[in-house]
From TrEMBL:
Protein name per the record: Xaa-Pro aminopeptidase
Residue span(s) of domain Peptidase M24: 326-563
EC numbers for this chain: 3.4.11.9
Lineage, top ranks: Eukaryota, Viridiplantae, Streptophyta, Embryophyta, Tracheophyta
Source organism (scientific name): Lactuca virosa
Top-level taxon: Eukaryota
């Protein structure tokens, strides 16, 4: 790390202008949460591998900002050359720069890797101290990264109508209607999941997300797809041509945006692509999402930009009936895989470690010690879970790295075990498993926390508080117009009653064979965009509790938002409720039934009865017997 920082500082000093600081974000050219190996620049520079964070290198300091999910992980991974800055507790990076760097400082960043929204905010703040945000002539991290991975070269696939539920022509018509409504003549689309959703294609350029490194520009008369053509088969090229989508090289987007700005972008046939046949049309603006990379935005005159959330963000989150049915089916198959895994793991823990198991409650005497080859580790058991999933119809891979965590590792909210350093399973410790998969008909995300020995009364109390919060949110009814920010408190109140809490949001949208984290809505203590929850959105319900160095607890189901048939309808707003589509039992021995209300007991029993009914057809006889025992009713 010392060599990397020294090399970066040398380039900063010789840069024109010389840089007082260099910002290294986590994001790629598309502001993606998960990025390809080539784009993991912040991880390369800092050694911190979490999915969220930002590095700042000055001439004498190195600082890493990340959020509460990653505090423990960052503490473990950062060398003593780095200082951890805790988001929400320490000053934000722009405030720190403004306060700690001299006037007239030049702060460098690759303008491809910063959003319009962030760049504008920073520029405004820095200007107060005559500080400047300047584009680096090249990405300086790429200059010092000698063994940087090559760009991904994975094939693009057509996502058929039987899974997508809406044709490209239908989506383009809606998009163009929105362009006309806002008096815009074109839009630049940089977010990977929006590009592939619009054109009904999928790819494999980013691990765990079926997206393609690409951009799109859509005008009132043309649609462009900027992608490395080597990824396109003749079949895909024909499909794109049939849908009047013009394919251009990935790198051509920059020059084409400049042409779009000056009304000179033409289709392959040589006609103007923006429909600007008269003076009225030529005055129309260009739609840019605030998340667009600043490099492309800088090709435009700010006066000609309509800076507003992408008109694709909300429609993508509102699942059509085909997507909804696919998501439900994918979660059933996925639930079956999770049950098969838990039943297998229960048997292994008893046979190899002498554990009392999933159902019985006694402390393991550790009378058995498995051989080195037979022992269970966080990685080996998560590989087994992937095996169960891989056997299911339409499986295409995992939707994120499995968080398979034993005991103290469970308190690291986004822990990612590695083969050489992961822990062995321990029958006397809590085990948290947060996992998901990509299927052609849907994306899944589920968390269950279990104990194969004798949990303490404190662990039971904490688990039950998390379960009560999970229940309170998942069974809420609320009027149209309600944001996830307003509902977040429901999941926390049971924990708050003990003086406990957690440092992450409570829910995020889920893609339809797309990103596992999907906006624009969320359920979080952070106000964010405050997008109201709407019928046909998906959202997770995942409260937790983490005791540093001891254990972690999280329970997560995916929910669908639907209209509620309430007795009354105050102010004719219309009311909404949630439907659970995740199916896997909660561990009964971790529930302190004395702390549950009658309605909570009734709900757990009802949910478990549905689990048994829905999943049984996918299980063998021994797995059915295990599930039957796992879902037996509880009582006060």
């Amino acid at each position: 790390m010392a060599d990397i920082l020294a090399a970066l500082r040398s380039l900063m000093a010789s840069h024109t202008p010389p840089l007082n600081a260099l910002v290294v974000p986590s994001e790629d050219y598309h502001q993606s949460e998960y990025v390809s190996a080539r784009d993991k620049r912040r991880a390369f520079v800092s050694g911190f591998t979490g999915s969220a964070g930002l590095a700042l290198v000055t001439m004498n300091e190195a600082l890493l900002w990340t959020d509460g999910r990653y505090f423990l992980q960052a503490e473990q991974q950062l060398s003593n050359q780095w200082r951890l800055m805790r988001m929400g507790e320490d000053p934000a990076v722009d405030s720190w720069i403004s306060t700690n760097l001299p006037q007239d400082s030049a702060i460098g960043i690759d303008f491809w890797c910063i959003s319009v929204e962030t760049a504008q905010k920073w520029r405004s703040l820095f200007a107060k101290n005559q500080q400047k945000l300047v584009p680096t002539t090249k990405n300086l991290v790429d200059e010092v990264w000698k063994d940087q991975p090559q760009a991904e070269m994975n094939p693009v696939h057509v996502h058929p109508l039987k899974f997508s539920g809406r044709s490209v022509s239908d989506k383009l018509k809606d998009l163009r209607d929105n362009l006309k409504k806002e008096k815009t003549r074109g839009i630049i689309i940089t977010t990977l999941d929006e590009v592939v959703w619009l054109y009904n294609v999928r790819g494999g350029d980013v691990s765990y997300s079926p997206v393609v490194h690409s951009f799109a520009v859509v005008t009132t008369s043309s649609a462009f797809f900027y992608v490395d053509e080597r990824k396109l088969s003749s079949e895909v090229k024909s499909y794109l041509e049939e849908n009047n989508i013009i394919v251009k090289d990935y790198t051509a987007v920059s020059s084409d945006v400049a042409l779009l700005a000056s009304n000179q972008l033409t289709s392959a046939k040589g006609t103007q692509s923006n429909g600007a046949h008269d003076a009225e049309d030529s005055s129309h603006k260009i739609w840019v999402d605030p998340r667009c990379c600043y490099s492309l935005y800088s090709k435009l005159n700010p006066d000609q930009v309509f800076l507003h959330q992408s008109p694709l963000s909300l429609p993508k989150s509102l699942k059509n009936p085909v997507e909804m049915e696919g998501l439900k089916n994918a979660h059933i198959r996925d639930g079956a895989a999770v049950v098969q895994y838990l039943a297998w793991l229960d048997k292994q823990m008893q046979e190899l470690y002498g554990a009392s198991g999933y159902f019985k409650e006694s402390e393991s005497q550790k009378t058995k010690t498995p051989s080195e080859d037979a022992k269970l580790t966080e990685v080996s058991v998560s590989d087994k879970l992937e095996e169960f999933r891989a056997a299911k119809e339409h499986f295409r891979g995992l939707s994120f790295p499995t968080i398979s965590s034993v005991g103290p590792n469970g308190s690291i909210i986004h822990y990612e075990p590695k083969p050489k350093t992961c822990s062995e399973l321990d029958p006397n410790c809590m085990y948290l498993c947060d996992s998901g998969a990509q299927y052609l008909d849907g994306t899944t995300d589920i968390t269950r926390t279990v104990h194969f020995g004798k949990p303490s009364e404190h662990e039971k109390k904490c688990y039950t508080a998390v379960l009560k919060g999970h229940f309170a949110l998942g069974n809420a009814r609320f009027p149209n117009g309600t944001t996830g920010h307003s509902l977040d408190v429901l999941a926390r109140v049971p924990l708050w009653s003990y003086g406990l809490d957690y440092r992450h949001g409570t829910g995020h949208g889920i893609g339809a064979y797309l990103n596992v984290h999907e906006g624009p809505h969320s359920i979080s203590f952070r106000p964010g965009l405050s997008v109201p929850l709407q019928a046909s959105m998906t959202v997770t319900d995942e409260p937790g509790y983490y005791e540093d160095g001891k254990f972690g607890i999280r329970l997560e189901n995916v929910l669908i938002i639907k209209e509620a048939a309430t007795q009354f309808n105050f102010a004719n707003k219309g009311y909404l409720e949630f439907e659970h589509i995740t199916w896997a039992p909660y561990q009964k021995k971790l529930i302190d039934v004395r702390l549950l209300l009658d309605e909570e007991i009734k709900w757990v029993n009802s949910y478990h009865a549905k689990c048994k009914e829905i999943l049984a057809p996918y299980l063998n006889e021994s797995e059915k017997a295990w599930l039957s025992q796992a879902t037996e009713p509880i009582s006060a």
